[in-house]
Amino acid sequence: MKELQLKYGCNPNQKPSRIYMKDGELPITVLSGRPGYINFLDALNGWQLVKELKEATGLPAATSFKHVSPAGAAIGLPLTETLAKIYWVDDCGELSPLASAYARARGADRMSSFGDFIALSDTCDKDTAMLIKREVSDGVIAPGYTDEALEILKAKKNGNYNVIQIDPAYRPAPIEHKEVFGITFEQGRQELPINDELLSNIVTENKELTEEAIRDMKIALITLKYTQSNSVCFVKDGQAIGIGAGQQSRVHCTRLAGQKADNWLLRQNPKVMNLPFKEGIRRADRDNAIDVYIGEEYMDVLADGAWEKVFTEKPEVLTREEKRAWLDQMDGVTLGSDAFFPFSDNIERAHKSGVKYIAQPGGSVRDDLVIECCNKYQMVMAFTGIRLFHH
């Protein structure tokens, strides 16, 4: 198949629409549903991300994409009891590595992952399909599906769930093209390998990089390769916990990603984990309530007449002081940036979210001030010398 007709482009009025190959055949097969233009953008970017994560770490990988940027990305490390609970998979028993990767990718930022397009590095198994089945999602791309998994996914959305299989052996041409306003752009593909050598130039006084920190640096940088720029990514224990994408200011990327990372940790606070939700509340309503409860507008869900819709009893406020004390426990977080930090304010914000390891290109006229700020907090920072803009 050389081309596939689509219902419409980015918006319903943008017709006609299709994906096609100028040379050869499409490396994808639609097994269920009717994926759209944005679905394919998410699917193909997501597939590249998880393929690289698998190659870099040797573990199955998953990502949860929304509007051509990842909301989450992770490798298949086992879940702790706490993570299983805050990701709402504690009723699933022991998960396969691929299912664990998706639980992490979907669970880190559930607000952003709502209605995601999923990419999986390995053949989708039953465990992973069962997790996908109960989430609000647009579709999934993987190199294959077990018979059980495919049966489960084909039944989702009354048979309209988008399931795409991609040929894992497919390699695109080294030169890529993009048309904007009738003008064709051409560039070499971004095929920079994210490896140990890229992380070898440590510029801070503290040069102690653990194996886990090196792994998390790779995860951050690979995630950034497929995130709309400017972008910053916080990673902890093999998964992205906060991604700030598409901001014009670098520090706004850091603040956005840092806030998401903070929310991830606050969801593990006992007050949050023990919120008395009413029986039968929808998953999305529960996620929304948690997001409001841990934020500054908490009275929107705790006011009289509001809490009764969600909780069996009125929860206590999680005070600003309690939140700060809880966040101060965070440590060992890794931060990646797709371009250099122009000011040390990014480092100050990163410190508030427990960042200890940083990977960024370097090259700012204020590199000395950024390094000095890292040294103040005993951080380890590597200059990669490589920018990772993605548009």
TrEMBL record:
Molecular function in Gene Ontology: phosphoribosylaminoimidazolecarboxamide formyltransferase activity
Top-level EC class as recorded in UniProt: transferase
Gene3D superfamilies from the UniProt entry: 1.10.287.440, 3.40.140.20
InterPro entries to which the protein is assigned, alphabetical: AICAR_Tfase_dup_dom_sf, AICAR_Tfase_insert_dom_sf, Cytidine_deaminase-like, PurH-like
EC number: 2.1.2.3
Top-level taxon in the UniProt lineage: Bacteria
Record's keyword terms, sorted: Transferase
Protein name, UniProt field: Phosphoribosylaminoimidazolecarboxamide formyltransferase
